[in-house]
Amino acid sequence: MTLNVQAENDVLPSKTEKQEPIAFDQLASRVLSGGEVTRDEALSLLSTSDDDLLPLLHAGFRIRQQHFGKTVQLYFLMNAKSGLCPEDCHYCSQSKISTAPVPKYNILKRDKLMDAAKVASESGAKTYCLVISARGPNEREMKAVEEIVPEIKSKYNLDICACLGLLSEEQAVRLKACGVDRVNHNLNTSEEYYADICTTHTYADRVDTLKRVRDAGMEMCSGGIIGMGERLEDIVSMAFDLKELGVKSIPLNFLNSIDGTPLEGNADLSPQDCLRALAMFRFVNPDRELRISGGREIHLRSLQPLGLYVANSLFVGDYLTTKGQAPQQDYDMIRDMGFEVTQSNC
């Protein structure tokens, strides 16, 4: 899949055809004045030519700078339970249909979770992300989270983001009570495309979980993955759905096509595609935290620093079952860009 495809019925011209230039700065000024971009305008941003990429990023930076200055917030992921998932998400190496050779273990013991929290704190992360592979947490896993979260916050004073799968109202309330600050549950793609990447639960199931998180008084963290064969319209639809839900933090992943998953071999994203998507998300969600997430090292490659002109957050270290670049490379990149890391509350 590439992001250079045309919209249905040739609504959008291809990048090789002459197009009317988009007034990026005027669009940014509208957003900075409290206005919004339309879905058609967002779609046009994804179809910007490579020659217009730098002006697009410059305009997006104006929005980023107003809301976040030149700060970058770091997140640290901990895969607290790996593999053993009964869902069939086609992108995931931990799903029941994956044959990828990933570690398989039940939720980790206290000491390992605390050791990871120490690494998160020492890495300059502000948020510790506690992740399990599951349709949703069972009672044993809920109790483990309820016990470890207060201890982590007491010792390291990190913000806690829990990613536990689908949640009931009662589970969301319990997570709030034990000190979880936000819950991650990605929409992953548009409602229209969702059945093409997962059949064991629905897009509506994910939206329901996010609403329960919101109703329980926690922040919603939700984003998606691009490069799974979706259309440009699907990416725009996801960006607007996240906006309408009021999601606070948006991680944008770029498909790391892992061998043994149904999406293995999908590697058609260019660095420019990724940057256009990040910029579009910034225009649509101007005051939301936007995180450059999994796959950035593979797809953005040497253009990773440019992503920080519109995004204001990164994962530091490794992901769930794949490796990230060395943390020192991230620190150097942030410093070389003239940005600074948002310090933790320690």
From TrEMBL:
Per UniProt, the cofactor note for this protein states: Binds 1 [2Fe-2S] cluster. The cluster is coordinated with 3 cysteines and 1 arginine.
Keyword set includes Nucleotide-binding: no
Supply one GO molecular-function term: 4 iron, 4 sulfur cluster binding
> Which pathway, metabolic or otherwise, does it act in?
Cofactor biosynthesis; biotin biosynthesis; biotin from 7,8-diaminononanoate: step 2/2
Gene coding for it: bioB
Please write the reaction equations for the catalytic activity of this protein: (4R,5S)-dethiobiotin + (sulfur carrier)-SH + 2 reduced [2Fe-2S]-[ferredoxin] + 2 S-adenosyl-L-methionine = (sulfur carrier)-H + biotin + 2 5'-deoxyadenosine + 2 L-methionine + 2 oxidized [2Fe-2S]-[ferredoxin]
Residues bound to [4Fe-4S] cluster are C85, C89, C92
* Cofactor(s) recorded in Swiss-Prot or TrEMBL: [2Fe-2S] cluster; [4Fe-4S] cluster
Family classification: Belongs to the radical SAM superfamily. Biotin synthase family.
Under which main EC class is this enzyme filed? transferase
For this UniProt record, the keywords arranged alphabetically read as follows: 2Fe-2S, 4Fe-4S, Biotin biosynthesis, Iron, Iron-sulfur, Metal-binding, S-adenosyl-L-methionine, Transferase
* Domain named Radical SAM core: residues: 67-296
- Protein's name in the database: Biotin synthase
Primary role: Catalyzes the conversion of dethiobiotin (DTB) to biotin by the insertion of a sulfur atom into dethiobiotin via a radical-based mechanism.
Enzyme Commission number(s) of this protein: 2.8.1.6
